[in-house]
Amino acid sequence: MSKRTYFITGGGTGGHIYPAVAVADELVKDGQNIYYIGNPKNLEYDIVASKGYKFLPVNVHGMPRHLGFDLIKWTFQLGLAVVKSVGYILKYKPDAVFGTGGYVSAPIMIAARILGKPYMMHDCDAQPGLVTRKLAPHATIVSVAFESAEKFINNKNFYVNGNPIRPQFKTLSKEDARKNMGLQNKLTLCIMGGSQGARAINDAVVELLKKFSVEYDLQVIFQTGKKNFERVIEQLIRIYPEYESDKNLVIRPYFDDMVTVLKASDIAISRAGSLSLSELEAAGVASILIPYPHAAADHQRKNAKFMVKNGASLYLEDSDTDELRLGELVEGLINNKSKLAELQKNALRLAKYDGVQKIVEQLKSI
After folding, report:
1. Cβ neighbourhood burial of 160 (10 Å; 0-12, 13-18, 19+)
2. Cα 243–267–162 angle (5° rounding)?
3. Cα dist. 22→112, 122, 167 in Å?
4. CB 333 within 8 A of CB 313
5. Which of 47, 134, 287, 291 has the most CB within a 10 Å radius?
6. Which helix (H) or strand (E) holds 269?
7. Taking all residues of the chain, what is their mean pLDDT, rounded to a whole number?
8. Is the pLDDT of residue 197 over 80?
9. What is the rounded distance in angstroms from the CA atom of residue 189 to the CA atom of residue 285?
C-alpha cells in the first residue's frame, strides 16, 4: 500500500490520549505518515513529543456547562481552533482523520466535516461523551469500547472494538509477572486509584494493609499516586511501623509497567476509567470498582455499572469507601474462591486483545 497521511487527535486525559497514541504507533509501524493534533498545554504534548511525532497545536479546552461570558469566550476559541484546523487539512492533505472524542478532538473533526474529509471516531466509555455523540452521525466509521455505547450512537457504520491495549497482556504469564516484581506465587491484590491516586481509597487501604498481610498472607501491590505517596507512608509508619520489612507489600507512587502489575494480580481495587477496565479485563482480574464521583458526565459510574452487570466486578461508592466496607469486600473474595473465579472468568470473557489492529484496519479502509 502506498504511504498515506493521517491526522490523529485526542487529548486532555489519558483515556483520550493513550488510545490515540496506540493507533498512531501502529500506523507508523506500518510506514504511514502521521500528524498529531492536540493542545500543547496538555499531557498529550509531552507524550507525543517523547515519541518524536509531528505535533500540530490547537488551543481549545473543555466547554463551560453554564451560560455566561465563559461560554461566549469558549465558542470564539473553538471557532478559531476550527479555522486553524481547516488550514492544517488544506496544507498537509491527510487521507483521513482519527479522533478519540473529547474537546481536543472537536476542532479537527468539525474541520474534516466542513471540507468533506473522511473521519473515524473511537470512544472509550460505556456512555460516549458529548463530542462523540454530536459528531458521530457524520463520521465514516464509529468505533467504541463497550457494547452498551451503541444506543447513544447514530451511525450504521458502527464497531465494538474494545480499547487499544498492549500486546503483553496476552503473552505475559502470571508466574513471570510475579517473578518480575519479586513476589511469590500466591494470592495478590492490586490497589490503584489512577496515576494521581485516590485519597478515599488510600485512606481506607492504609488501615487494612497489616491485616491483609498478617492475617491472610495476601500480597499487596499498592499504587498510591504521586501526590499522595508521602501522606500514605506517614500514615503507615503510625499504623504499621514494621511495614518496610513486610515482603508481602510493594508500595510505590506510580508504576510505569501496569501490564506486569495487573498480570501479577488476582484482585484489584480500582477507579473505573475505561482504559483501566480494558486492562483489568485483559489481565482476567476480579475488581472492586470505586468510580471517581466527579468524572465528566459521570462516565466512570456508568463504566463500573457495565462491569457489574456483566458479572466482572463488585461496586462501591466513593462516599461509602471506608476500611470496614472495603475490608468486607476483599475478605469476601479471599474466603469465597468460587466467587473470585467467577469474576475473573467474566472479566476475561469481556477482554478484547485486538482493538488497535481492528481500528487501524477500519481506518485504512476509509
Report:
1. middle
2. 135
3. 22, 12, 11
4. no
5. 287
6. strand 267-270
7. 92
8. no
9. 9
**Cα–Cα distance, 134 to 128 (Å, whole number):** 10
- What residues contact 307, with CB distance under 8 A and at least 6 apart? 272, 277, 287, 289, 313, 347, 350
DSSP state of 247: T
How many CB atoms lie under 10 A from the CB of residue 365? 12
C-alpha closest to that of 18 among 63, 51, 62, 40? 51
State pTM to two decimals: 0.81
- Answer left, alpha or beta for residue 267, where phi above 0 means left and psi between -120 and 50 means alpha: beta
At 12 the pLDDT is 83
Identity of the residue numbered 358: K
Which pLDDT score, from 0 to 100, does residue 9 have?
A: 97
Q: Is 122 exposed, middle or buried (0-12, 13-18, 19+ CB in 10 A)?
A: buried
Beta bridge partners of 120: 98, 141
Residue with cell 487499544: 164
Buried residues in 170-193 as b, exposed as e (16+ CB within 10 A): eebeeeebbeebebeeebbbbbbb
> Alpha-carbon distance 348 to 366, whole Å?
31
Which CA distances in Å does 45 have to 37, 161, 275? 9, 26, 19
Report d(CA 264, CA 253) in Å as an integer: 18
Q: Which residues contact 69 (CB under 8 A, 6 or more apart)?
A: none
Amino acid at 38: G
Nearest CA to 34 among 61, 73, 9, 5? 5
Q: What confidence category does residue 47 fall into, taking pLDDT thresholds of 50, 70 and 90?
A: confident
* b/e 252-286 (16+ beta carbons within 10 angstroms → b): ebebeebbbbbbbbbbbbbbbbbbbbbbbbbbbbb
Q: Are 303 and 162 in contact (CB under 8 A)?
A: no
Give the separation between CA 43 and CA 11, rounded to whole angstroms: 7
Distances (CA, A) of 350 to 12, 37, 55, 161, 313: 27, 31, 34, 11, 12
Set of cell numbers at residue 87: 488550514
